Amino acid sequence: MSGREWYLVQCKPGETLRAQENLENQGYECYLPFHECEKIRNRKRVVLQEPLFPGYLFIYLDKSMDNWQPIRSTRGVSRMVSFGGYPLSVDQRIIFELKRRCSSIQMAQALEKGESIRITEGAFKEIEAIFESFDGEERVVILLNVLHQQQKITLPVTSIKKV
């Protein structure tokens, strides 16, 4: 079993991407989850990709094998998040779920009205349907054929995939 675990790095204000780039250049594996948000710029609504946790990124380290010393002096890095003077690992399942949800949301946002999708969880698992529209950031409206009629159903974005 690998002793590698995910830890949390606090970055200097506005330097999260710089910290990620510099850590990856040193050979560390990092993860910085993003989400899309709408903002108004120059009186126009634009969709931007922003870090899900501004000022923080995850780093995958082995407590005994990796050299932790360069991390704190890396440009853009403020410190390792720790409790009682010791870095506390982040549960692997949290990172797995973040990666799954972020990729599902990005995939689903590429859907267009009328495209075929497959439901991946819940009571309608493995049933094909038609994508209708988005219902907020994390939900979709689909058309499901029930008793020869199309019914509108709202589901989480993470519970569908493109066929």
Automatic annotation (TrEMBL):
Residues annotated as domain NusG-like N-terminal: 3-102
Gene Ontology biological process: DNA-templated transcription elongation
InterPro entries xrefs: NGN-like_dom (IPR006645), NGN_dom_sf (IPR036735), NusG-like (IPR043425), Transcription_antiterm_RfaH (IPR010215), Translation_prot_SH3-like_sf (IPR008991)
CDD domains: NGN_SP_RfaH
Any one GO MF annotation of this record: DNA binding
Entry-linked SUPFAM superfamilies: N-utilization substance G protein NusG, N-terminal domain, Translation proteins SH3-like domain
GO CC annotations, alphabetized: cytosol
Any Pfam family: NusG
Top-rank taxon, per record: Bacteria
Keyword tags: DNA-binding, Transcription, Transcription antitermination, Transcription regulation
Subunit organization: Interacts with both the nontemplate DNA and the RNA polymerase (RNAP).
Membership in a protein family: Belongs to the RfaH family.
Free-text function comment from the UniProt entry: Enhances distal genes transcription elongation in a specialized subset of operons that encode extracytoplasmic components.
Protein name per its UniProtKB record: Transcription antitermination protein RfaH
Organism, scientific name: Nitrincola nitratireducens
Organism classification: Bacteria, Pseudomonadati, Pseudomonadota, Gammaproteobacteria, Oceanospirillales
